Amino acid sequence: MTSGDTLFIFSLIAIGGSFFVLGILTEDILIEILKKRSKRVILESPYAGRGLHNITDPFERAKVFEQNVAYARMCMRDSMLRGEKPIASHLLYTQPGILNDDIPEERKLGIEAGLSWGVAAAATVVYADRGISEGMQKGIDRAKKEGRPVEIRRILP
Questions:
Q1: 3-state DSSP: the chain helix, strand, coil percent, rounded to 5?
Q2: How many CB atoms lie under 10 A from the CB of residue 73?
Q3: What CA–CA distance (Å, rounded) separates 135 from 49?
Q4: What angle do helix axes 104-115 and 134-145 make, rounded to 10 degrees?
Q5: N or C terminus of the chain: which is more exposed, having fewer CB within 10 Å?
Q6: What is the DSSP string of 18-42?
Q7: Among 21, 22, 23, 25, which residue's Cα sits nearest to residue 6?
Q8: Residues 37-69: pLDDT tens digits?
């Protein structure tokens, strides 16, 4: 163990008014145990993909956006029915009052916040029926860099 490692007490036993530590865990070991017990995954699907930021017609933009959100919800359902515990940060951080995906700095902040959950994820699952957007590619690249498995999925007929 190196200095600065966080210790977690695994189990205590009390004997005659004294406590004895039966085991200790470092933060890294605890994260590995959590990954094995519950398959937490980072879910990637298009949000602003397919050139959404480049579409000038507001009606077409709204249509593509709605399709991407509906697809992301289908992906969340698929992942959960597989027994996974997905996080889809693009659905979470872009809700009204949180971050504005149309502001590049806020979009970057949201992508980074979502990718930071990678330390707790067992895998990155990529739903590719609607293509792979720039943001999704960043998630794939980050997973590979961190040694996290990447699984490409398709759920549409």
A1: 45, 20, 30
A2: 13
A3: 7
A4: 30
A5: C
A6: EEEEEEEEEHHHHHHHHHHHS-EEE
A7: 25
A8: 678 999 999 987 556 667 788 888 888 889 999
pTM score of the predicted model: 0.72
Place of tokens 């590719």: 128
Please, which pLDDT band fits residue 1 given cuts at 50, 70 and 90?
Answer: very low
Which pair of structure tokens corresponds to residue 1?
């163990």
- Structural domains present in the chain: 1-31 (no CATH), 38-153 (3.40.50.450)
Reading the block at residue 35, the tokens are 């990954």
- Give the model confidence (pLDDT) of 93-102 as tens digits: 988 899 988 8
Q: 97: which 2 tokens?
A: 């009052």
Name, in order, each residue with C-beta under 8 angstroms of 2's C-beta and a sequence gap of 6 or more.
none
pLDDT at 153 > cutoff 90: yes
Chain segment 87-126, per-residue pLDDT in tens:
999 899 988 899 988 899 998 898 889 888 888 899 999 9
- CA dist 127 to 42, 69, 88, 132, Å? 11, 13, 11, 8
For residue 16, give both structure tokens: 């005659």
Closest CA to 101 of 60, 139, 49, 146: 49
